[in-house]
UniProtKB/TrEMBL annotation:
<protein>
    <submittedName>
        <fullName>Putative transposase</fullName>
    </submittedName>
</protein>
<dbReference type="Pfam" id="PF00665">
    <property type="entry name" value="rve"/>
</dbReference>
<dbReference type="InterPro" id="IPR001584">
    <property type="entry name" value="Integrase_cat-core"/>
</dbReference>
<dbReference type="InterPro" id="IPR048020">
    <property type="entry name" value="Transpos_IS3"/>
</dbReference>
<feature type="domain" description="Integrase catalytic">
    <location>
        <begin position="98"/>
        <end position="269"/>
    </location>
</feature>
<dbReference type="Pfam" id="PF13276">
    <property type="entry name" value="HTH_21"/>
</dbReference>
<dbReference type="InterPro" id="IPR025948">
    <property type="entry name" value="HTH-like_dom"/>
</dbReference>
<dbReference type="GO" id="GO:0015074">
    <property type="term" value="P:DNA integration"/>
</dbReference>
<dbReference type="InterPro" id="IPR012337">
    <property type="entry name" value="RNaseH-like_sf"/>
</dbReference>
<dbReference type="InterPro" id="IPR050900">
    <property type="entry name" value="Transposase_IS3/IS150/IS904"/>
</dbReference>
<dbReference type="GO" id="GO:0003676">
    <property type="term" value="F:nucleic acid binding"/>
</dbReference>
<dbReference type="InterPro" id="IPR036397">
    <property type="entry name" value="RNaseH_sf"/>
</dbReference>
């Protein structure tokens, strides 16, 4: 979005696209090699034990002869954007001044494409460092409609992914997210509500509201991320993009009667509502 090689000054570019100037100059703080290894293991344990907070994770690590303090585990979890689902997921850290929208999906039958889209952000470990993956997923078909890999969890990445999904697939009736500040930000809520789409947000710490997206992350991480050691952000983007194409086009799901997400999406797709 920001091109440092462009003749237009960065300060002017950030005003035009409506983001904070500090975002354009953001550089992530370095993480030690030991902490990177620990963060990867924490991510794996979080997928296996999504209800585990820092205290339980310390006990699980101790069983693996990994000695680390609860405070340090908590610090790394915040850096990664994870917490126990019964608490408040840290990728869901609320901004104190942002409005929280009600959860609209309780009791709803979701059985057709473009009925509900979900967005979420997840930590992705690399060989050195880490990035965040934000995905737009069609709820009924599990199809990943668009995604972004970035070094921050800012709203602009979610907006870019959502706008790409609109351009390719029309628009849904409802967009569902968690209460993360990237999704409660005005830039994101305006992108949804400005198209007369209803916005739904998971209940604070309600794991049942989030379990569908967690299943998508399990597939992405166990079938792609944990098998790789991305050497750069561009490597992560390319490899994750290749995997998501395979996931959509070739990976059958038992929950979809062994259809692929693409097959399920187009089989249940009503007339597409124009995104224009």
């Amino acid at each position: 979005m920001i091109d440092r090689e462009h003749a237009l000054p960065v300060s002017r570019q950030v005003r035009l696209v409506g983001i904070a100037r500090s975002s354009a100059y953001y550089q992530p703080h370095p993480v030690s090699e030991a902490d990177q290894k620990l963060m990867r293991r924490l991510d794996e344990l979080h997928l296996e034990f999504p209800f585990a907070g820092a205290r339980m994770l310390v006990r699980l690590l101790k069983r693996e002869a990994i000695r680390v303090g609860r405070k340090h585990v908590g610090t790394l979890m915040k850096r990664m954007g994870i917490e126990a689902l019964y608490c408040k997921p840290n990728t869901s850290r609320r901004h104190a001044k942002h409005k929280i929208w009600p959860y609209l999906l309780r009791g709803m039958t979701i059985n057709r494409a473009n009925q509900v889209w979900a967005l979420d952000t997840s930590y992705i470990p690399m060989a050195r460092g880490f990035v965040y993956l934000t995905a737009v997923v069609d709820w009924a078909s599990r199809k990943v409609l668009a995604h972004r890999v970035a070094i921050t969890m800012e709203a602009m990445h979610a907006v870019e992914a959502l706008e790409e999904a609109f351009a390719k697939y029309g628009q849904p009736e409802i967009v569902n997210t968690d209460q993360g500040s990237q999704f409660t930000a005005t830039a994101f809520t305006d992108a949804v509500l400005g198209r007369d789409i209803r916005l739904s947000m998971d209940g604070k710490g309600a794991w049942r509201d989030n379990v569908f997206v967690e299943r998508v992350w399990r597939s992405v991480k166990y079938e792609e991320v944990y098998l790789k050691a991305y050497e750069s952000v561009s490597h992560a983007r390319r490899s994750i993009g290749d995997y998501l194409n395979l996931y959509n086009q070739k990976r059958p799901h038992s929950s979809l009667s062994d259809q692929t997400p693409d097959e399920a999406y187009f089989a249940t797709l009503p007339a597409i509502k124009s995104a224009a």
